[in-house]
């Protein structure tokens, strides 16, 4: 979608918004898939309510983009624009056992910055690409931990109510790759409360997780991490692998030959290729294992 309304185009700079016309989602997502639309980078987030109102009044639909690392976006010209928070210069402040982190901060950098301040607990998240906002929304987890366990407070903008809110950790439900946030809640910042741990000990945990991840996941290929959630008590990767589907390909999309629950963009895959591959694997698992796999990757199909 292109913003043509002159009064909207004129108002955006005053609201601290940078307009990137016709941005390709191939460059904004870790899968390297998706069509084009206008990207609005928000540099002054205090204007978020006015920005949302301006778009609403002019009938411009929008979606909110974090790091784009768990996302499969449709091909072609997209029917909505994208909003994205610019990363501020100071995105992380430590105060005792708490870290106040901006939603646009990089997750991995947050883990290491906290480690340097002798705050641990999040070692498992090292190597998970994306922003703090995205990690919160999905309750990112790995190697036995999840970010939700450490959330004390979340500051967010509720687009539906047009209201800034601060939620305490116990007002949010954090489940396996699922949270109680509404789809149009925009994460702004989080206060994490982390256990004290000596830096060396955290570093050792980080090293172990990094090695496990490197040996089992296709980190140097374009992917969105795991495509399906693990069904209770089972492993989607193991089930897909057991069907001999590693390397199985539709167009430019393929099941990784390293980890069967990672689907990779091998060669200019389209969203149509990737969706067909997801549907095919889903069906084969259903037929053979009798299990309906649920997507972990977020689909923006329309
Ligand atoms: N396995 C296979 N073949 C494969 C992949 C896995 O046999 O192709 C087996 C492994 O040998 C292991 C079991 O399946 O016995 C589980 O595999 P793994 O340890 O790789 O964990 P996973 O359940 O596949 C989950 C998360 C990952 C997270 C890892 C590490 C989900 C859907 N995936 O993977 O998260 O990094 O554990 O904790 O929960 C993500 O969320 O995008 C993601 C990658």
Structural overview:
This protein is α+β, with helices and mostly antiparallel strands and 302 residues long. The chain has three domains: 6-85, Uridine Diphospho-n-acetylenolpyruvylglucosamine Reductase, domain 2 (2-Layer Sandwich); 92-200, Uridine Diphospho-n-acetylenolpyruvylglucosamine Reductase, domain 3, CATH 3.30.465; 218-300, UDP-N-acetylenolpyruvoylglucosamine reductase, C-terminal domain (Uridine Diphospho-n-acetylenolpyruvylglucosamine Reductase, domain 1, Alpha-Beta Complex), CATH 3.90.78.10. The chain contains seven helices and 19 strands. The chain has a five-stranded antiparallel sheet, covered by helices on one side. It is globular. The N and C termini lie close together (12 Å). Bound molecules: uridine-diphosphate-2(N-acetylglucosaminyl) butyric acid. Uridine-diphosphate-2(N-acetylglucosaminyl) butyric acid binds at residues 142-143, 216, 225-226, 229-230, 235-238, 241, 259-261, 296.
């Amino acid at each position: 979608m292109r913003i043509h309304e002159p009064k909207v185009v004129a108002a955006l700079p005053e609201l601290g918004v940078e307009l990137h016309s016709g941005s390709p989602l191939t460059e904004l997502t870790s899968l390297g898939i998706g069509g084009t639309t206008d990207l609005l980078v928000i540099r002054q987030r205090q204007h978020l309510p006015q920005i949302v109102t301006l778009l609403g009044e002019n009938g411009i639909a929008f979606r909110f983009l974090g790091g784009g690392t768990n996302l499969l976006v449709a091909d072609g010209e997209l029917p909505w624009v994208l909003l994205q928070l610019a990363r501020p210069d100071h995105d992380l402040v430590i105060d005792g056992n708490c870290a106040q982190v901006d939603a646009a901060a990089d997750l991995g950098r947050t883990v290491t910055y906290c480690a340097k301040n002798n705050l641990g607990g999040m070692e498992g998240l090292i190597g998970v690409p994306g922003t703090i906002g995205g990690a919160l929304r999905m309750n990112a987890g790995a190697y036995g931990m999840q970010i939700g366990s450490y959330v004390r407070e979340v500051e967010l903008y509720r687009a539906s109510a047009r209201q800034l809110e601060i939620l305490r950790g116990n007002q949010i439900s954090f489940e396996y790759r699922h949270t109680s946030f509404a789809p149009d809640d925009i994460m702004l910042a989080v206060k994490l409360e982390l256990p004290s741990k000596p830096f060396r000990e955290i570093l050792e945990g980080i090293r172990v997780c990094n090695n496990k991840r490197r040996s089992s996941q296709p980190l140097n290929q374009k992917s969105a991490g795991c495509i399906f959630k693990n069904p209770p008590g089972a492993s989607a990767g193991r089930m897909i692998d057991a069907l001999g589907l590693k390397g199985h390909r539709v167009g430019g999309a393929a099941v990784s030959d390293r980890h069967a629950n990672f689907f990779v963009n091998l060669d200019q895959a389209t969203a149509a290729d990737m969706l067909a591959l997801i549907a095919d694997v889903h069906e084969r698992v259903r037929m053979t294992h009798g299990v309906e796999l649920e997507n972990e990757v977020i689909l923006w199909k329309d």
